[in-house]
C-alpha cells in the first residue's frame, strides 16, 4: 500500500505524538441504563468489530435523540498534542496514517485547525478508525474503538526525518501497535528525543502486563502516566498494588512517574522527590 505524506513543515515541533491509526471519536452523553446493554466493563476501552460499532451507534442514536453524536479527531495521543497546542501554545505534531474517506479528512481538518503539524501524517487508501465514546453524568468514559480494518502507519514507514529536531515523543501503550511503538522509540532515542508513555486502559494492562513491564524495564521510557486502575493492574499479584507502590515501581524504570487519582489530583516522582498535586476546588 502506497502512503502519501503531506508536505513537511519548516520547523520541527517540540512534541511529537505517535498515533499509528488516525481516529474519529463519536462522543455522546448517556446514562448507565444504556451502558448495561453494551458488553465489557464500564469506564474501560474494549476493541470492537465494524458491525458491533455500527450496532452501538444505532443503539445510542435511539436513546439519545436530543443530543446527537459529536464527531471529532480522537485518541489519547491526539488529545494530548491538541491540548498542548491549543491550551499552552506548545508546537506539536502527529506521526501516523489516515484513510482516504470522510473520517480521514475530518481528522486532518480538526488537527490542522488546532495548530498541530500534520505533515508527518500519511494518507492511505482505506478506512479511518472510529471509536464510540460514551460519557456518563460524572464524566466517566466508556470507549469501544474499531481499529481492525483501519489504515495505520507501519514500523518500516518511519524514518529519522519524522523525529529530527523534536524533543519529546508521546506514546499510548497498545499491544497491536507494539512493533511500530518499538520502532518509533528506537529512532526517537537515536535522534535524542525523550519518550512519554500513557498506559492506555486497565484492560490493556491486565491482558498484556508482561509485554508492558518489559517495555518499561527497557529503560527507554522517560515519563510514564498511569491512572489508579491501570496502576492496580500493573502490580496485580504483588503484595502491594496501591498508587504509591505503582509510583515506586514506575520511578525505578522512568525518570518521571505520574499516577493520577481522579478528583484527588495526582502523585508524581522524579529522582527521590515525591509530590502530591491536588485539583483546584
UniProtKB/TrEMBL annotation:
Q: Which GO terms describe its molecular function?
A: kinase activity
InterPro entries hit by this protein: Carb_kinase_PfkB-like (IPR052700), PfkB_dom (IPR011611), Ribokinase-like (IPR029056)
Decide whether keyword Methyltransferase is in the record. Answer: no
Pfam families, A to Z: PfkB
Write the signal peptide boundaries: none
**Regions annotated as coiled coil:** none
UniProt keyword list: Kinase, Transferase
The entry sums up its family as follows: Belongs to the carbohydrate kinase PfkB family.
Name by which UniProt lists this protein: Carbohydrate kinase PfkB domain-containing protein
Q: Report the source organism.
A: Eutrema salsugineum (Saltwater cress)
Amino acid at each position: 500500500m502506497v502512503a502519501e505524506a503531506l508536505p513537511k513543515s519548516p520547523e520541527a515541533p517540540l512534541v511529537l505524538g505517535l498515533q499509528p491509526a488516525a481516529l474519529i471519536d463519536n462522543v455522546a452523553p448517556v446514562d448507565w441504563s444504556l451502558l448495561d446493554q453494551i458488553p465489557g466493563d464500564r469506564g474501560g476501552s474494549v476493541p470492537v468489530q465494524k458491525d458491533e460499532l455500527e450496532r452501538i451507534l444505532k443503539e445510542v442514536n435511539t436513546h439519545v435523540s436530543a443530543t446527537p453524536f459529536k464527531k471529532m479527531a480522537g485518541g489519547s495521543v491526539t488529545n494530548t498534542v491538541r491540548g498542548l497546542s491549543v491550551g499552552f501554545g506548545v508546537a506539536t505534531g502527529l506521526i501516523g496514517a489516515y484513510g482516504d474517506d470522510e473520517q480521514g479528512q475530518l481528522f486532518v481538518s480538526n488537527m490542522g485547525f488546532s495548530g498541530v503539524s500534520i505533515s508527518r501524517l500519511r494518507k492511505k487508501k482505506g478506512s479511518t478508525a472510529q471509536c464510540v465514546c460514551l460519557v456518563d453524568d460524572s464524566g466517566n468514559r466508556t470507549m469501544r474503538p474499531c481499529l481492525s480494518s483501519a489504515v495505520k502507519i507501519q514500523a518500516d514507514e518511519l524514518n529519522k526525518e519524522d523525529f529530527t529536531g523534536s524533543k519529546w515523543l508521546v506514546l499510548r501503550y497498545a499491544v497491536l501497535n507494539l512493533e511500530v511503538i518499538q520502532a518509533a522509540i528506537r529512532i526517537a532515542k537515536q535522534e535524542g528525543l525523550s519518550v512519554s508513555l500513557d498506559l492506555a486502559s486497565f484492560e490493556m494492562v491486565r491482558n498484556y502486563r508482561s509485554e508492558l513491564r518489559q517495555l518499561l524495564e527497557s529503560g527507554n521510557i522517560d515519563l510514564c502516566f498511569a491512572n489508579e486502575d491501570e496502576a492496580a493492574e500493573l502490580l496485580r499479584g504483588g503484595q502491594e498494588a496501591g498508587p504509591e507502590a505503582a509510583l515506586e515501581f514506575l520511578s525505578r524504570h522512568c525518570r518521571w512517574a505520574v499516577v493520577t487519582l481522579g478528583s484527588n489530583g495526582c502523585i508524581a516522582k522524579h529522582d527521590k522527590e515525591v509530590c502530591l498535586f491536588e485539583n483546584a476546588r
